[in-house]
Amino acid sequence: MAKRDNSNDDHKAIPTSRVGRFARVARMAGGVAGGMLAEGTRQLRAGKRPKARDMLLTPANARRVADQLATMRGAAMKVGQILSMDTGDFLPRELADILARLRSDARYMPPGQLDQVMSEAYGDNWESQFYGFEHKPLAAASIGQVHRTLSPDGREIVLKVQYPGVAGSIDADVDNIASLLKISGLLPSEFDIAPLLDDAKAQLQDEADYNKEAEFLAAFGDLLAGDERFLVPEVLPELTCKTVLAMTYVNGQPIESIGALPQVERDAVMTALIELMFRELFELRMVQTDPNFANYQYDRSSGKIVLLDFGATRRFKASFVNGYRSLAKAAIAGNRKRLIAAAERVGYAMGDEDSEYRELVLELFLMALEPLQQDELYDFAASDMSRRMSERAEEVTAFRDFWQAPPTDAVYFHRKLGGMFLLATRLKARVNVHQLISKFL
Question: What does the pLDDT read at residue 62?
Fold first, then answer.
């Protein structure tokens, strides 16, 4: 067998011990501090009076943070993803931009670690159970990586293999990274992310249990069994365990590839995906909350949408779903008083009556739910909703004394909602969102 090249930066061993992972955090902190000192010296030599924020938020420091989180994978990488996706409007733009790289970072574990995980799952002779196991993964993410092979009965399957040490390091990783971001000043001191991070720990523990993901995958397969628009992989329970998820291989092209298809086909795909999102929330109360485009593919031969990766599936309480239903109805009706009441029931801090802050939050709600409000095709490509929201959201930073972390259920659902609207914009789709949600209200 040819010797594999392990020198590539995308092929680094993942630190598995608590000490090893903490060392990564300490190294990152030291690198950031050293970078600040060097930048401060450079500015002094140039006759400038350096500010701490300018010394901290250099491209080199941002790269140090992103690179170390990517090497650690797991919860450390997820913290970066959560902060960049869900709270970007409250972070320094330089940090939010660099953390966004973590959503698509494709580093994977070297052969030795892969063999270790597979041996623990299937025994020392694990390769004899599969045919043509492809050691180079099809995809790599924060919790695990995906390999293609043939099952013992000859079916084309994929194995989602979890990185070693990820499950046991979740709480420590989240705490260490959050502390680093606070102490370093990369995260504003008044920005309380504790509720988000506590919930992230629980969510990540679920994601690290592939038996749970197998249950979610099977549930979505049952839900969509009669829907000709979708294709969901089938779980292989006999080959699935806590650290390896086995499922049938489903062929498809990246969802963005349909951008070249006729308008009617793009509209149909986005209509199906947005309708599914509402079914997940209002019927199942169980939502796949990760809108990463890589989780969606399109099979041109059948015209079906392929759904992948159900690890970030989240169950929602009936109280939240009912509250969000009231919130959506109030937004559609343009009833600001009912919208405030519904938002507060869901868990949002809306500020004092007649305050500037309340008015600003109301505007942001109405903007975010704009596609729901008119019974007509919403042209996402022609909309400037995202730009308007970004401009108004920047004003929230002036009210940090009033701002509180949004309710975690709302964060996860809005993550999905925003992702679907972003995909619709990317595909230049037109969708009557009002019509889709009305049947659930």
Answer: 60
